[in-house]
Design goal:
459 residues; alpha/beta; 5-stranded parallel sheet
Length: 459
């Protein structure tokens, strides 16, 4: 649905004359020119004269059967389709959803609900067309951005991709470090071999060594069979160690030894295995500062940072935000079978005004939801929810000041509560996990999942 409706026309096929008069009055107040059709044939005739901004159709109108509603829903000249009915049933609600209607309003038609829907169309400015998803190599990592910040990253990838050098990718959470690692692998002469990723912060410390190096049967309690580690699985290819800054000093020493000797021993094993693996690591932690504090080995840091690629935060990427937005809308529209034809300029302006503490990951989550909320193939400002704690009313004081809007989903309440707890302890992950009553690794995973970036973030 959608297209590029000509401004001004609102077509009306009402169930009775009173509804037609109410709709026409609302349309005039909204600055639209109402055109009333006496019957279905008349409506099709009005559509034949050119596209409309909005079309109001009563399901109680004579001859208005389901196939005709579907036909109107798929007709670009219809513009934003608003349906009305004398009663809201499940079947009618499902039909409205399937045809991408802006709304299903109850009859007799009330002026204010209809006016609200019109404002959603009229007040949002022009639409920017969303290009269809797809095309190109499906296995190629998609790194988007045409601004100077990402140009530096692209040049760095091109310069080192075909070398065996280790690479350290730095940047805030959610900036796309794993996608850059995948791009390095894809552009290298190892692309036909495995790319293996490990999130060091998501695996409990006592299991991480076995996960990386593997173990032999009987190496420890519960080791009932031998296990191949991630290093071995990446043989000939690339091993990506994400959030390596969270790794213990003991395990850091073992990683350093593997890098220097190009050999490893499984936990509980006696035989060293030769390795041909390119290591790419990533972190949002300030590793130079952590080396000065003794929390990260200096020799490992310099071994990892033979080449360092620093990813810019989304707030510093300028017009890349629009390019990423259109890309994600196309992807999610295709994934959910709800093609998105456009996004309004007002919605784009709202996205541009956001600070994006969760970076590209947060943008993905916002647009994922927006595609599901868009009712007619057009994403509007009202379809966006920016940040789990985005205020929906004026700030309150008193005992209810910390309450959450009932419009938030359970996941959004959890994300906002985690953010508040982190802020209350200055971003200290250990104290926040203790206060929340969860393991630190669980907290780390949720922080990454929700794209949170607590103020004053600490280890």
């Amino acid at each position: 649905m959608g297209g590029s409706p000509s401004p001004g026309r609102l077509l009306i096929l009402a169930g009775d004359p009173e509804q037609a008069r109410t709709a026409a009055g609302v349309a005039s107040e909204a600055g639209l020119e109402p055109e009333i059709a006496a019957d279905l044939t008349g409506l099709l005739g009005l559509l034949g004269r050119g596209p409309a901004a909005v079309t109001l159709v009563s399901l109680a109108a004579p001859g208005m059967e389901e196939p005709l509603v579907r036909r109107l829903g798929g007709e670009p000249r219809t513009g934003g389709l608003v349906l009305s009915a004398p009663g809201i049933t499940l079947d009618r609600a499902l039909l409205a959803e399937e045809v991408g209607a802006l709304a299903l309003l109850r009859e007799p038609l009330e002026a204010e609900p209809f006016a609200e829907r019109l404002r959603a169309v009229v007040d949002e400015g022009t639409q920017v067309v969303v290009p269809p998803a797809g095309g190109g190599d499906p296995d190629r990592p998609r790194l988007l951005g045409s601004g100077p910040a990402m140009a530096t990253v692209f040049e760095g990838i091109a310069r080192v991709a075909r070398t065996p050098s280790t690479v350290l990718i730095t940047g805030e959470s959610g900036t796309g470090k794993e996608v850059v690692a995948q791009a390095l692998h894809w552009a290298s002469d190892r692309r036909a071999r495995p790319f293996v990723a490990v999130n060091c912060a998501a695996i409990p410390e006592h299991l991480l060594e076995s996960e990386l190096f593997g173990h032999e049967r009987g190496a420890f309690t519960g080791a009932v069979a031998s296990r191949t580690g991630r290093f071995e699985r990446a043989q000939g290819g690339t091993l990506f160690l994400d959030e390596i800054g969270d790794m213990s000093l003991v395990l850091q020493a073992k990683i350093l030894r593997v890098l220097e000797e190009r050999r490893l021993e499984r936990v509980g094993g006696e035989r060293a295995l030769d390795l041909d693996v390119r290591l790419v690591a990533a972190t949002h932690q300030p590793l130079r500062e952590r080396t000065r504090e003794g929390r990260f080995r200096e020799d490992l840091f310099y071994r990892l940072a033979v080449v360092e690629l620093a990813l810019p935060p989304l707030r510093e990427r300028g017009d890349d935000l629009r390019e990423l937005t259109l890309h994600f809308l196309g992807i999610f529209g295709e994934r959910y079978g709800r093609p998105v034809q456009g996004i309004t300029e007002q919605a784009l302006e709202r996205l541009a005004a956001h600070t994006w503490p969760g970076n590209v990951r947060e943008l993905r989550n916002v647009l994922d939801r927006a595609v599901l909320m868009a009712s007619d193939g057009v994403v509007r400002a009202g379809d966006l929810r920016l940040g789990a704690g985005a205020p929906t009313a004026a700030p309150r004081s008193g005992p209810e000041a910390g309450a959450y809007p009932v419009s938030l989903s359970l996941a959004e309440v959890e994300a906002e509560h985690i953010r508040r707890v982190l802020d209350s302890v200055g971003g200290h992950m250990g104290r926040a996990a203790e206060g929340l009553g969860i393991h630190r690794n669980t907290l780390t995973r949720k922080v990454q999942e929700y794209g949170l970036q607590p103020r004053g973030e600490q280890a």
